[in-house]
Amino acid sequence: MIPALGNFITEWAGWPEALDVLLLQNYNTRLVVLSTTLLGIASGIIGSFLLLRKRSLMGDALSHACLPGIGLAFIILVAFGGEGKYLPGLLLGALVTGLLGVGMVIAVRNTTRLKDDAAMGVVLSVFFGLGIAIMGLLQKMPGASAAGLEHFIYGKAASMVLSDFGFILTITVIVIAVSMLFLKEFVLLCFDDSFAATSGWSVTLLDMILLLLVAAITVVGLQAVGLILIIAFLITPAAAARFWTDDLRGMLVWAGILGGLSGWIGASVSALLPNLPAGSLIVLVGSGLFLFSMIFGNARGILKRYWKHLKLKRKVGRQHLLRSVFEIIEAELRGESREPVNMAVSVDRLQKHRTWTPKRLHHLIKAASKEDHIESFDAHTLRLSEAGFGEAARTTRNHRLWELYLISYADIAPSHVDRDADSVEHILNPDMVRELEARLLQKESSLAIPRSPHQIEEKGVTP
Amino acid sequence: MSWYTIDTWIVIVGVLCAISCALPGCYLLLRQMSMMGDAISHAVLPGLAIAFMVTGSRSSIGMFIGAAVVGVLTAVFTQWISSWGKVDRGASMGIVFTTLFALGLLLIVQAADHVDLDPGCVLYGAIEMTPLDVFTSFTVAGVAIDIPRAAIVLLGVLLLNLIIILAFFKELKIAAFDPELATSLGINAQWMHYLLMTLVAITTVAAFEAVGSIIVIAMLIVPAAIAYLLTDRLWVMLVISAVFAALSAVLGHVSAIGLPHLFGMESTTTSGMMAVVLGVFFIIVWLVSPRQGLLRRQIFGKTVASKEDLMHE
After folding, report:
1. Is A290's Cβ below 8 Å from some Cβ in B?
2. Looking at the domain assignment, is residue A221 inside a domain?
3. CATH number of the domain enclosing A363
4. Distance between CA atoms of residues A267 and A224, nearest Å
5. A132 touches B: beta carbon within 8 Å
6. Distance of alpha carbon A87 from alpha carbon A91, whole angstroms
């Protein structure tokens, strides 16, 4: 490990040069970094559709199936007396066998009892084997040097020249333009393919267009990232983007940004450390961005979701406390048939009401006092503040409204409704409450707090 | 085309490798986890690379332990990303194995100066070189026999696979078809899952030197897929897959050294041709399988049996 690390450090050219490469000031690496960045943007966008369509691994079968095409194209080019390593020709070959591979996956899946995964495994490994066999032949082919073709396997961004750049740029722009053109259709395809079908679009046709775009990006990316790891370019930025946004358009933008970033940083690092495989560096940068997004993403990241969960838990706890106080007051005053008013309740009774542990109840009461919901509290009694009592009444009302709604419209038995209502009421927003009121208005004569539709039992006390 | 002792050894190594892979491959296929085989075979690379760097040799028991650990980790990481990050399972698998593969590749390139390893061989192995690494030699009736180390290792892994499959035949079968039933019968389906992942990882490592990390997917999945199109019985499926695997190794090497002569060329990569032969077998069976084949379906209409049929033997 140590000597290897030493190697790594001696290759490093220093920060000033690194900055030159990153800022596209270095003439030699500018094209490479720029085209890899573009490629990252385009594959992020296309990859998002692929991910939402749950076809991510199809890209893997496709890229592996490109290998025999490259070899065959080389043979054909040489046989017709051309330059064997003419990039568009080789990539056309890759495209043909890549699409043939995808076609085989679909055919095997549709005509045998083998599933998607097995069909992909068969196609990708057999096509790759064929490619390796053809490459093995080429190495010993008389009169033509096939050296350099193996770069398509691992990717060698540094081997790009100006004409390659023009080619990559053209394809990338076309792919982005076509995906924007079909944006609405692709969104339908991803979220509701049966609806896409009823609105006049053939799902098969849309899938074909999507796969064609994926194939185009894969083939163009072979040179920079290589066919083994190009799949990461399609999956990772798209998956990372979902942690930053809940909206599909936002996801496309984020995936483009994250894909572009991994291309940009990865290709720059690889330009600075030319002995290391470019594809690996690009993939590792992308994986780093993914990990960062998964933890810190501000829409669905782990921290964010944990925080939301905590917040909801606090809210639920507070609402349970307030409602319990209200229900106890209600029970106290039932005999006197008076409307509930704010009064002190026994802490002991409160604790039994929801089977709280004393510690948990104490914690909840402390949290509620921070919100100014508690007026006074000692070892035996607890009295809500005016604000707290208002909130308690509102919470109880929401709970009962929701219970009534579930009983009337969702056919839930009154004896079970408490628990079901409990799981939803805490996320009711004012609009939903109004909607509930509107619906229940026809049933209930008053909009005051409805009576509980079930017996409120004191848990912890055996009935 | 001429045949030497070395060719015999290449075929023997190929046959052992193909059969060792085909057996766990059947279970991967039935559990619809073929791509997990793909993922694990990529992901063991950093484990191998680190083992190479630490021990400086390719023949350590630590290598197998490391690979088994990384193989199980692949399954675990995939599980984490898909459950914590709520990412589609296929995609999380893709993220995990590309990351680990990229890391492994980086380590191997870095270590290339210190350890004898070629990034090309990572993908398709060097089965042609395996007979050169002799484990032991002895003389029978005046003829010297040099047994390659790869043959011994693969034989060991084949026996291990056979023993585990025979010992846990019922458990693996029920866990493969109906994890819930397995649990209700007192079989720990989760445990069987990781047992299978460990077997796949160990087999992948053993096969790595011969066929590399991508051709090995052909060895794992294609014989199983062929057998699945031919039978509804699990043990028959295991036997058929082993037979096709062995045939592919023999024909693969023969065609690798023989076929190119027809075009006036020398020879090509054996592991690549083994995959191609398997592909040809697959296409033939796909067309003419007595119950599942395309031809049969054309004539008699659909007769697709569900996988539950395999349960009733």
Report:
1. yes
2. yes
3. 1.10.10.10
4. 8
5. yes
6. 6
Nearest CA to A215 among A449, A419, A59?
Answer: A59
Nearest chain B Cα distance for residue A433, angstroms: 30
Question: Hey, is the C-beta of A6 within 8 angstroms of any chain B C-beta?
Answer: no
Inter-chain residue contact B102 with A113, CB threshold 8 Å: no
| Residue bearing tokens 């007051």 | A329
The domains of chain B are located at: 5-311
d(CA A392, nearest CA chain B) in Å? 35
Residue that terminates a domain, selected from A283, A300, A317 = A300
Of B87, B221, B256, the CB nearest to A122: B221
Q: Which residue in A361, A372, A358 sits closest to A325, CA to CA?
A: A361
Same-domain status, A422 and A281:
no
For residues A263 and A122, membership in a common domain is answered with yes
Which residues of chain A lie closer than 8 angstroms to B38, CB-CB? 60, 120-121, 124-125
Residue A448, domain member (yes or no): no
Q: Domain check: are A135 and A207 in the same one?
A: yes
User: Does residue A102 sit in the same domain as residue A170?
Assistant: yes
Last residue of a domain, one of A300, A327, A346: A300
Residue A152, in any domain of the structure:
yes
Residues composing chain A: 463
pLDDT tens figures, B274-311: 999 999 999 999 998 877 777 776 666 554 444 445 55
Please indicate, yes or no, whether residues A221 and A122 belong to a single structural domain of this protein: yes
The strand order across the sheet containing A381-384 reads A345-346, A381-384, A374-377
B307·A54 Cβ contact <8 A: no
In sequence order, the β-bridge partners of residue A368 are: none
Superfamily designation of domain B5-311: ABC transporter involved in vitamin B12 uptake, BtuC (1.10.3470.10)
Contacts of B124 in chain A (CB under 8 A): 129, 132
What confidence tens digit (pLDDT) does each residue in A24-76 have? 776 667 888 888 899 999 999 999 999 988 888 888 899 999 999 999 999 88
pLDDT, one tens digit for every residue, chain B (313 residues)? 677 778 888 999 999 999 999 999 999 999 888 888 888 888 888 888 887 777 766 666 777 887 778 888 888 899 899 888 888 888 999 999 999 999 988 888 877 655 555 666 777 777 877 777 777 777 777 777 778 888 888 999 999 999 999 999 888 888 888 777 887 887 777 888 888 888 998 898 888 878 888 889 999 999 999 999 998 889 999 999 999 999 999 999 999 888 777 776 778 888 899 999 999 999 999 998 877 777 776 666 554 444 445 554 4
Distance from CA of A145 to the nearest CA of B (A): 14
Q: Does A97 touch chain B (CB under 8 A)?
A: no
Q: Which residue of A has its CA nearest to B110?
A: A4
Identify whether residues A377 and A428 lie together within a single domain: yes
d(CA B136, CA B155): 14
As a whole number of angstroms, the distance between CA B305 and CA A114 comes to 11
Taking the alpha carbons at both ends of chain A, their separation in whole angstroms is: 69
Could you say which residues from 366 to 405 on chain A have a Cβ atom under 8 Å away from some Cβ of chain B? none
